[in-house]
Amino acid sequence: MNVTTILGEKGVEVITTNPEATLLDVAKRLREYGIGCIVVENGKGGIAGIVSERDLVRAIAASGADILKAPVSRCMTKKVVTCQKSDTIEALMAAMTDGRFRHMPVVEGSKLVGLISIGDVVRSRIAETELEAAAMRDYIATG
C-alpha cells in the first residue's frame, strides 16, 4: 500500500494558510477543522512551512500568550519532510518515527497535493494486516 491509496480513501483536501497569518488565526483554524496541523504555503502552491499544535504550545510556553499575535512564520517548522504519492506506508512510518512528527505533506514536484497523518498511516497498516490475515485464514480453510 502507498500514499496514493491513502489519498484515494481520505481525499486530498489540505487546510493551508500564509506566512503572515497570526498564530491565533492558526489556532482557531485548527479548532474549526479539528486538525493537528496547517501547511503554510509560499504563494506559488509550494510549502513554506508547517505549524502543528505542538509548535503552538512550544511558542506559548517560550514567549507567553502575546506570541499569538505574531505571524505564523515566526514559529512554523521550515524544514518540512515531504513524501510522494508512490512512497510506501513503511517508508512513511520510518520517516515519521525517526523525525518525531505526525504529519507529512504530499508533493508532486514542488506542488502540495495532499497531507498524510500518522493516523492515516496506522489505519492503512491495520487494514492491510486484516486483509493479510483474512487471506491466510482462507488459504488454511481451503488448504
Descriptive tags:
18% strand, two-stranded antiparallel ribbon, 143 residues, 5 helices, alpha+beta, three-stranded mixed β-sheet, 5 strands, CBS-domain
**Unreliable runs:** none
Question: By helix and strand content, what is the structural category?
Answer: alpha+beta
What name is given to the CATH topology? CBS-domain
How many beta-strand runs? Answer: 5
Shape: elongated
**CATH architecture group name:** Roll
What's the assembly state of these chains? single chain
Mean pLDDT level: 92
- How large is the share of residues in beta strands? 15-25%
Question: What is the total number of structural domains?
Answer: 1
Integer-rounded radius of gyration:
18 Å
Largest sheet: 3 strands, mixed
- Could you spell the SSE succession in H and E letters? HEHEEHHEEH
What fraction, in percent, of the residue positions are helical?
A: 40-55%
Strands of the largest sheet, in order across it?
A: 1-2-3
